[in-house]
Amino acid sequence: MAAYRAVMGVLRVSASVVLLVALATTAVLEARALVAAEPAAQVVVAGAAGVSMDQAVKMAEQRFKARVVRAEAQHDGVRTIYVLKMLNEAGHVWTVRVDAANGVIL
Does this model's pTM top 0.70? Predict the structure, then answer.
């Protein structure tokens, strides 16, 4: 019975990891599709800011060796901040904020 419980525990953890990776991949694809679907909006943001959201995503993914699973722009008065939710291979999720004017990670 103990062996059965151990195997079931491993299967539950494995299923959870697979589900998390699948959800993260879906979120990345949806975020990139949204950016690609609105090229006019992206050009306006890029023209108003020094760094586009796509550039911020690529920079963060390279720096932290993780995938961006969600990206959004937040406006604080005249300042635009990209809020990027990151996921690494170990399943750790965290948020990175990038100043759209200069690309500095806050």
Answer: no
